[in-house]
Amino acid sequence: MLYYLLYPLRDVFSGFNVLRYITFRAAMAAVTAMLLGILLGPFVIRKLYELKAGAPLRKEEFFALHAAHKNKQGVPTMGGILILIAIIIPTLLWVDILNVNVAIILGATVWLGILGVADDLAKVRRRGAGGISAKRKFFWQILLGVVVGTVLVALPQKSDYATKLSIPFWKHPVVDLGVAYVILTVFILVGSSNAVNLTDGLDGLAIGCSVMAAMAYGLIAYLAGHANFARYLNIQYVPGSGELSVFCAAMLGAGLAFLWYNAHPAQLFMGDTGSLALGGAVGVMAILVKKELLLLVVGGIFVMEAVSVILQVLSYKTTGKRIFLMTPIHHHFEMKGWPETKVTTRFWILASVFALLSLATLKLQ
Prior knowledge:
Strand content: under 5%
Structural class: mainly alpha
Number of domains: 1
Distance between the termini: 38 Å
Number of strands: 2
Helix content: 55-70%
Shape: globular
Number of helices: 16
Order of helices and strands: HHHHHHHEEHHHHHHHHH
Radius of gyration: 20 Å
């Protein structure tokens, strides 16, 4: 918005010329998001307490981890509202609002945020008995994937590359999936949003890992949107994707602001409102910058969490035995005696390593 309001005035005041640079607007989006999130935090927390939006624990989780988690009862959930506000407003302020990539990722983030609000409200009203049904949640996630995939396939300006899938570590192989790309989009969106949701179980864990993913994809988006950099790195050039780095910067700033209140001991939980929206945003980023398969590396922690649950369920149903003491896997390490803060910090370290590895792969092809 400011780009269109102030950049045309560069002849009046030359300082407005900096708005042409994505790097400047991304930096400003990050700072704006962080300041906005920190300033609004106390107000959001107070309102959620007034609404009695405390997060009741599942009984099995409470009895298994009562020593570490008993003080979490009553801490307000739906803190993802703060994250969404701190992402959306700075993005709209500093991004090229006519960029179609930005419209897609903002739409998907809001869509999943609303779904998360509905789920969190249902959990609060039922006092931990469960949110909306899994079938309803999957329906809206799948529908979003179909909408996003169809839009990408149908957009004329994306027709040359929208359905193509590049293979990491290979120099030229590209698979054109055609309309089947819509199915891949559904799979990525459902998987990424639910994987972050599973990761959200310890103070600061999900938001810290999401920040790492946002930084990695923010840089990838900038490189993919710059013709010379894309040519040098031999990656798919995606016109207009550079503006997505502004969104990622806002996501970074919003994440740091939320961590201000979500660090142990947490004053606020993101709930499904935040985890579904953040997971969806990361998934859409992977799709828009044409680095879909790289999501397995960028979101390595989210993959670990999801796979641990899948393996646990399969093992128990087939053999009657559990592989892990408790899933998702961060609870396994808690059951082994690791303090919550140690689990979170070590997972942050792993998330940063995954992010760096993902960037390293840009030259390994």
